[in-house]
Amino acid sequence: MKLSEIIELLSAVVYTSEPDYNLIFEHCMASDLLSDVLVNNPSENSLLLTGLVNPQVVRTAEMLDIKTVVLVRDKRPSQEMIDMAVTNNIVLLGTPHKLFVSCGLLYSNNLRD
């Protein structure tokens, strides 16, 4: 699924500058426990959904080569978090949907894992 489709599907806001809207994602994972994200070692071309809003989310995404992080429940990243994401070429999105609903929307549109 293309990043542009994910943005539209989740009614997402883009917090980082001009992402590549043609980025393709084959998998997604959702967690509010970064230790679970680290242990489950996501596949290439993965998307991370979380309700956490702190710099550790970006650090974890960078370590695992996750290119996009979706912040759920209208959570807003700090400027520090946005700056870290830009430095590491990570797209930060925000959606008003809850984690469960966001996962359901992606799953029902064939982005699974």
Per-chain topology:
Layout: H1 3-9, E1 13-14, E2 27-30, H2 34-40, E3 46-50, H3 55-63, E4 68-71, H4 79-87, E5 91-94, H5 99-108
Helix pairs in contact: 3-4
Task: Please name the fourth-level CATH homologous superfamily.
Answer: HprK N-terminal domain-like
Q: Helicity range of the residues?
A: 25-40%
Outline the low-pLDDT stretches: none
The strand count comes to 5
CATH architecture: 3-Layer(aba) Sandwich
Alpha carbon gap, first and last residue: 13 Å
Structural class of the helix and strand makeup? alpha/beta
Shape: globular
Give the count of helical stretches.
Answer: 5
Per the CATH scheme, the topology name is Udp-n-acetylmuramoylalanyl-d-glutamate--2,6- Diaminopimelate Ligase, Chain: A, domain 1
At the first level of CATH, the class is Alpha Beta
What is the total domain count? 1
Task: Please state roughly what percent of the residues sit in beta strands, choosing from under 5%, 5-15%, 15-25%, 25-35%, 35-45% or over 45%.
Answer: 15-25%
Q: Give the H and E element order.
A: HEEHEHEHEH
Radius of gyration, in angstroms, nearest whole number? 12 Å
Q: Biggest β-sheet, characterized?
A: 5 strands, mixed
Q: Average pLDDT across residues?
A: 92
Strand order of the largest sheet: 1-5-4-3-2
